[in-house]
Amino acid sequence: MTNVEKEQFNIAETQPWRVLPSIIDGLISSQRKILHTLLQPKTQKEIKVNELANKVAILYTQDPDRLEIEQSIIQLAQNFVGANNINYLEPNGWFGSRRDGGKDAAEGRFIYTKLSNITRTILSEGGDMGLARRVRKGKLGEPRTYNPAIPMILVNGYEARGQDWQTYIPPYNPKDVIANLRRRVRGASKSDMQPMQPWFRNWTGQVKTLGQTHHSFRGTTCKISENVLEVTELPPRLWTQDFRSELDKHISEHSPPMFKSYTEHPINQGVRFEIHLDTCTTDIVTQGSLETTLQLHKNISTDSMIALDGLGNVQRYATELDILEDFYLSKLKSYTWNKTCQLLAIKRELTKLDDQSRFVKLLLQGDLDMSTDRSTLVTQLIKHNLTPVENLDDMFVATKKRKRDVHDKSTVSGYEHLFEMTVASMLPGPMRELDLLITNKKAEIAELDLRSIGDIWEGELQVIEEEWNRQLEYDRMHPQSSSCEKCGGLECRIAG
């Protein structure tokens, strides 16, 4: 039996899902509301962040803080170094930078967003089937958890603090996460998975593992002249403005200071400082002590990885592999259920299509008498084995349904898919297309029936990996631009 090293953990919050993410989708409740709102429309158009916040607010039982929702939307879209490894939303406009840790983002009325291309590969439509959803005012709302193919909690990480508790789960490289999942899907055990180092997208510093739960991050420095030290990378989430403040503080508070001045050079979402030392004796010891003084070395610990498990219980996990293993076991069960739901959905759709084809043929052959009363007509339909089929969306998806009184006699209940057909759809051309659809649906059922859970999962991992590689290639070909070509974001701000 697979062993997941975790322990039950108690926190003071009565609704932990509001502050702690699930290991299944890596999201908290407010973030799911945002994704749920954007996943509903068939067409994904850009929308202003403040307008999206107003739509999301409908999902709250009490009047929420619109500015807090806007901030959550902005955080889901941020992709500068130290933010998301994979951003669910696309940032169109100034969504902040590593200079101020995203706090310099423009107001919601000035910026736009939509779902990122990779979001629907991670949250596949097939995975939406059978999701348990929250119910508000008698209507289905956002899922209790989404069902992604990879544990996004390990991809983007999470950090939060509460009363007598704190959690920190660092982000990891999606490629490492996918590689370990593949090992498990292909039959390897938890012990065969490889330990992973924390990883920040586009970060260029050095990381060293000090133990099972400790890692050291180091910025990049280089001596470019006798008394000039160049800093080209900071530890992750040491924001540029904070580092600059630290330099100013050192100069003003230390007598004599280890350096006399510094120069900051604008660079696209990157870092470049020249530190002018007060002495020419810049040996390794001096450089190392200066790096320590300026916090260019940062140690992180992963011994407080607290999150909700697949059942919604608060757990403290020992390692990132324990989170990955718990995700794997929960996901394995959901894939079995999803496959059953998908087969049922396709079979229901096939039944509707097949009944439509036979219904038209019965009409054309004169085997159905449409002039009879309702009960007689239903008897005829049952006699010809035409099955009452409800709309598929009624079972799986929260949609706006047409209101119909229970005593409405204008349609034959359960046979709307037949009686709402138009005369044009019964012509030879459309009927040939209908027969082709029936053939394709039968082939789809046969193909899905033969696919194992491992094959389905592997296929989804492949699609995610391909899209992720495209994103990395785009990063390489199109370095992120700063807010202003003149100052590189040092002084410019989008007016609010």
Automatic annotation (TrEMBL):
The keyword tRNA processing does not apply. It is an enzyme of class 5 (isomerase). GO terms for biological process: DNA topological change; resolution of meiotic recombination intermediates; sister chromatid segregation. PROSITE patterns: TOPO_IIA. Its cofactor is Mg(2+). Its EC number is 5.6.2.2. GO terms for molecular function: ATP binding; DNA binding; DNA topoisomerase type II (double strand cut, ATP-hydrolyzing) activity. One of its GO terms (cellular component) is nucleus. InterPro entries: DNA_Topoisomerase_II, Topo_IIA-like_dom_sf, Topo_IIA_A/C_ab, Topo_IIA_A_a_sf, Topo_IIA_dom_A, TopoII_euk. Pfam families: DNA_topoisoIV (PF00521). The keyword ATP-binding applies. Residues 20-461 form the Topo IIA-type catalytic domain. Keywords: ATP-binding, DNA-binding, Isomerase, Nucleotide-binding, Topoisomerase. It catalyses: ATP-dependent breakage, passage and rejoining of double-stranded DNA. Belongs to the type II topoisomerase family. This is DNA topoisomerase (ATP-hydrolyzing).
